[in-house]
């Protein structure tokens, strides 16, 4: 399956004592049933909506489709690859050079999982230029400058495990002990316990 639809490939299949493969696939960039471009489209659809709706979206917009179960597998596999590659990314350099002060937003929402409703915890680490000074009674109507850069970590897990995920990201961006960090969150106790553990010098 390609980004333009299904094609049929005919190529040699090699069977050896310790290996079985299509040698041409490495040259063609083919891994499994879907090409890299088709996988990107499926994962994009799968992260924007439910997998069942993603199946319909692909069929309507691209003219080809994958089963919602396949879209689920591709999306989960992409998430694992991205998580594993986080420490090797170079956006920490862009983060350091971006204008503004560091702002850490922490929250959670409810998702229905195979084990019932659970929290999906999310932390966005960004930089934002300072806005104009505004009294509290006008906060609801003010427009803040947009972030100049932002990274996000999220997962369905307990707060202690999520704290480790946030700490790894703030360490990577070199903001764990920075003095100009502000944490934004609601009144949930786990948020402020996490902030105290991970960002000890941050304002709240």
Task: Describe this protein with a few key phrases.
204 residues; alpha+beta; four-stranded mixed sheet; two-stranded antiparallel sheet; 6 strands; 39% helix
Strand order of the largest sheet: 5-4-3-6
How many E strands?
6
* Strand coverage percent: 15-25%
Q: How many helices in DSSP terms?
A: 7
Q: Name the shape in a single word.
A: elongated
What's the alpha carbon Rg, rounded to whole Å? 22 Å
Question: Helix fraction?
Answer: 25-40%
* Overall average residue pLDDT: 92
Distance between the termini: 49 Å
Order of helices and strands: EEHHHHHEEEHEH
Based on secondary structure, the structural category is alpha+beta
What does this structure look like?
Helix 2 (36-48) crosses helix 3 and helix 6 crosses helix 7 (189-198). 39% of the residues lie in helices and 20% in strands. The longest helix has 18 residues, at 68-85. The relative contact order is 0.11. A four-stranded mixed sheet has the order 5-4-3-6, with helices on one face. It has a two-stranded antiparallel sheet with strand order 1-2. The chain is of the alpha+beta class. A hairpin with a 2-residue loop joins strand 3 (101-113) and strand 4 (116-128). It is built from seven helices and six strands; from the N terminus they run E-E-H-H-H-H-H-E-E-E-H-E-H. The radius of gyration is 22 Å and the shape is elongated. It starts with 13 loop residues before the first strand and ends in a 6-residue tail after the last helix.
């Amino acid at each position: 399956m390609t980004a333009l639809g299904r094609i049929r490939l005919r190529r040699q299949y090699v069977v050896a004592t310790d290996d079985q493969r299509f040698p041409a696939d490495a040259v063609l960039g083919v891994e499994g049933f879907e090409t890299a471009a088709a996988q990107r489209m499926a994962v994009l659809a799968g992260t924007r909506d439910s997998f069942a709706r993603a199946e319909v979206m692909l069929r309507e917009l691209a003219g080809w489709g994958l089963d919602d179960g396949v879209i689920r597998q591709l999306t989960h596999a992409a998430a694992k690859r991205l998580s594993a590659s986080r420490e090797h990314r170079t956006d920490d350099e862009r983060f350091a050079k971006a204008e503004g002060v560091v702002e850490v937003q922490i929250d959670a929402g409810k998702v229905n999982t195979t084990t019932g409703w659970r929290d999906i915890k999310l932390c966005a680490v960004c930089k934002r230029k300072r806005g104009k000074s505004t009294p509290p009674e006008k906060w609801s109507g003010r427009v803040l400058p947009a972030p100049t850069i932002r990274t996000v970590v999220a997962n369905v897990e307990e707060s202690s495990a999520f704290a480790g995920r946030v700490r790894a990201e703030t360490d990577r961006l070199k903001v764990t002990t920075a003095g100009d960090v502000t944490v934004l969150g609601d009144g949930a106790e786990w948020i402020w316990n996490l902030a105290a553990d991970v960002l000890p010098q941050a304002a709240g």
